[in-house]
Amino acid sequence: MVTNGIERQQILRMASSLPSGPLVLSLYLLLFPVCLATDSASITYHGGPLLTGNLHLTLIWYGQFGRVHKNVIRAFVESLHYNAGANLQPQVSSWWNVVESYQEVAGKGSSPINVKVVKQVTDLKYSAGKVVTSEFIQKVLRKATGGDSNTIPVILTARDVQMQGLCFTKCSQHGMLGDHQQPYIVVGNPESECPGSCAWPFQKPDKGPLSITLNPPNGNLGVDAMVIAFARALVEAVTNPYKTGFFQDNSNNANKTVEAASACWGIFGSGAFDGYTGKVRVDPETGGGFNGHGSRGRKFLIPAVWNPKTKSCWTLL
């Protein structure tokens, strides 16, 4: 069903008066399957190359990271191709299958896009400082890759590193480095800086309507929010690596380009609307909100992605 603004506020007021707890939250998510209207302009193909085949990632742990952070991020990458079994549905790999379908829509055939972590680099001394700028990115990437252009470097910043623009929903970004136009990804950690912008739905938003927050599925707000940001950046690096692939026709500003993941911002399940994730599941043991099963027994909350075949936002639930 589709609700108007008054009805949405009534639903949220009702939700705020309910007692808290995983069971009540699960009932709420099932009872109110309202829809979020998306922008009428579709994500279209502009003729440029996509990233296909084997994608080798270099993870750059910039700053102090705990074991949980590293394990969860690596498990997420593994989950893109992991078969969790019939009893563990839906799976993160189903989400990645939608990303792989962009090749077919672009007329480039249909084949798996195999993502694998081939190298990890740790920078505990903050060699480029604690503020992410364009100069910071170039310095860190060149040092970490050693000039190897056959890898996609991913900078993951610790909680005490500031990322310019993080407070304006720039929770991650992708771009190109050097003459070879080597794709790269930067993922910010919103645990300390602007959690109300980039840690939702695990943190109350800074602005907007009343929102129900979820417990992070892996028990750590920082890394579970980083998984969401990383997932968005990875999708857009694959589908629009050189700014000539898939993006929205009316978004010609480089800083406001609407791409395959940003077109579905804030949507995690069917029936989403502003301030409401849509349908998700709650782990009965941990109380964590999730929508996809992955490797190592991990559960993840994965953002919606634009489906190029149905021309609509697609979610696991």
Automatic annotation (TrEMBL):
This is Phosphate-induced protein 1. It is found in: Secreted, Extracellular space, Apoplast. One of its GO terms (cellular component) is apoplast. Residues 1-37 form the signal peptide. The keyword Secreted applies. Keywords: Apoplast, Secreted, Signal. Belongs to the EXORDIUM family. The keyword Signal applies. It comes from Populus trichocarpa. The lineage of its organism: Eukaryota, Viridiplantae, Streptophyta, Embryophyta, Tracheophyta.
